[in-house]
Design brief:
five-stranded parallel beta sheet, 5 helices
Length: 113
């Protein structure tokens, strides 16, 4: 079991039409439960609801900045989900696995049928 940290906007916008924030959360939760992973979905600005597995940034901080700041303190194993090369460089060095945002979005939507 790993903590899977998702760069929400990167994943949402990797498909056309884009996934809504609510649909991303619904699909990611379903996937994490089925795979036995913990989940943390990080949004730029407000998250679509309040729950322990959702983070909305404040004060102009981006999701990328939040993830890069928090990554060094995450207990292994954890995975990073993003296609953002800069974020991968800033935060991904301690991640056990890095998954592309588009690959993750397709996995979620393929699993949903």
């Amino acid at each position: 079991m790993a903590l899977v940290v998702v760069d929400a906007e990167n994943v949402r916008r990797s498909l056309w039409p884009n996934l809504s924030p609510e649909r991303l959360v619904e699909l990611a939760r379903r996937w994490a439960a089925a795979e036995g992973h913990d989940l943390l979905v990080v949004f730029d600005g407000s998250a679509p609801g309040e729950a322990p597995d959702l983070v909305g940034t404040r004060g102009g901080e981006s999701a990328d900045d939040w993830i890069a700041r928090e990554a060094p303190g995450l207990a292994p194993p954890w995975w990073l989900v993003t296609s953002d090369r800069e974020l991968r460089s800033r935060a991904g060095s301690t991640a056990e696995r890095v998954v592309g945002g588009g690959s993750f979005a397709r996995l979620l939507t393929d699993d949903a049928g």
